[in-house]
Design goal:
The chain is an alpha/beta fold and 260 residues long. Helix content is 48%, strand content 15%. It has eight helices and seven strands. The chain is globular, with a radius of gyration of 18 Å. Bound molecules: nicotinamide-adenine-dinucleotide (NAD).
Length: 260
C-alpha cells in the first residue's frame, strides 16, 4: 500500500505503458485518474480498474490543450481534493529522415511531449504546493533522452528536453516537497512500437525481424524488450520515494542498451 489514498494522474493511461502504471499504482491503493485523448478507452480502463476493486476515474484530456488540461485537473481536485502524483506519459512517435520531416509533424510531436508535460505540470503544481503534502512529478522520457537514433529528430529532441524540465521542477518544487524525475525506457512492445516496426522496415529497406534484432534490440545485453511492468516498477519507485533525496534524476530501464 505504498500509495494509499494518493491521487495519481497518469496521462496517456488508456494504453501501453501508462495503463500498466495505472494498474500498478492501483495495486498500491492509489486513487487513479486515467487521463487520455481517447475518451472511450480511458473510461474502459478506469472501469476495468474499478471492477478489480480499485478507486479510479477517467478524464478526457488532450495534453496539448490548456483548457482541457485545466478542466481535467480541476475535475480531479473537485472529486478527490488534490493531486499527489503526476505521470506525464502521453506520447506518440513519427519517423522520417530529417530532410523530409514535415514541419507540421515536428510541431505536433513536440506539442504532445513538451507542451503536454509543461501544461500538466503547471496545472498540478499549485495543488501539490497548497496541500502541504508535496508530490511527485514523473516524466516519461526514453533512452532517446540520452541517445539518438536515425529518423527520430523531434522525438529525440523532446525526450532530451524533458530532462531539463524535470531539473527545473526539482529545483522550484523542492521547498514545497515536490520531486521530479524522468524514466527512460528502452523499447517496449506497445502499440506505439508495433507501428514503428513495419514503418522502419519500409524506410530502411530491411525485414521487420531485422528492425527488431539489428536496430531496436541490437545494443541490449540480452536481446530482450523492456516490459511495461519493468517501467511501472520504476514509476512506483519515483512516486513513492519517501524523501527529496531522489529528485532531478533520470533512470534508464533498457536491458543495458544505454549505460550511464
Ligand atoms: P501507446 O501508443 O501505447 O499509448 C500512448 C497513449 O497516449 C494512448 O492511449 C494515446 O491515446 C495517448 N495520447 C496520445 N496523444 C495524446 C494527447 N495529445 N493527449 C492525451 N493522450 C494522448 O504508447 P506507449 O508506448 O505506452 O508510450 C507511452 C509513453 O512512453 C510515450 O511518452 C512514449 O514516448 C514513451 N516511451 C515508449 C517506449 C516504447 O518502446 N513503447 C519507450 C520509451 C518511451
Amino acid at each position: 500500500m505504498k500509495l494509499l489514498d494518493k491521487v495519481c494522474i497518469v496521462t496517456g493511461a488508456a494504453s501501453g505503458i501508462g495503463k500498466e502504471i495505472a494498474l500498478k499504482f492501483a495495486q498500491e491503493r492509489g486513487k487513479i485518474v486515467i487521463a487520455d485523448l481517447n475518451k472511450a478507452e480511458a473510461e474502459a480502463t478506469a472501469q476495468e480498474l474499478r471492477q478489480a476493486g480499485a478507486v479510479a476515474m477517467s478524464v478526457e484530456m488532450n495534453v496539448t490543450d490548456e483548457q482541457q488540461v485545466l478542466a481535467g485537473v480541476a475535475e480531479v481536485v473537485q472529486v478527490w481534493g488534490g493531486v499527489d502524483v503526476l505521470v506525464s506519459n502521453a506520447g506518440i512517435q513519427i519517423v522520417h529522415p530529417l530532410e523530409e520531416f514535415p514541419f507540421a509533424e515536428w510541431k505536433k510531436l513536440l506539442a504532445i511531449h513538451l507542451d503536454g508535460a509543461f501544461l500538466t505540470t503547471k496545472a498540478c503544481l499549485p495543488h501539490m504546493y497548497a496541500s502541504g503534502r508535496g508530490g511527485s512529478v514523473i516524466y516519461m522520457g526514453s533512452v532517446h533522452s540520452k541517445e539518438a537514433s536515425m529518423l527520430k529528430a523531434p522525438y529525440v529532441t523532446a525526450k532530451h528536453g524533458l530532462i531539463g524540465l524535470a531539473k527545473v521542477v526539482a529545483k522550484e518544487g523542492a521547498r514545497h516537497g515536490v520531486r521530479a524525475n524522468v524514466i527512460c525506457p528502452g523499447f517496449v512492445r506497445t502499440p506505439l512500437v508495433e507501428k514503428q516496426i513495419p514503418e522502419q522496415a519500409r524506410t530502411l529497406g530491411i525485414s521487420e525481424d531485422d528492425v527488431i534484432k539489428n536496430i531496436m534490440l541490437k545494443d541490449t545485453v540480452d536481446g530482450a524488450f523492456t516490459t511495461t511492468q519493468d517501467v511501472a516498477e520504476v514509476a512506483l519507485l519515483f512516486a513513492s520515494f519517501p524523501s527529496s533525496a531522489l529528485t532531478g534524476q533520470s533512470l534508464v530501464v533498457s536491458h543495458g542498451w544505454f549505460m550511464q
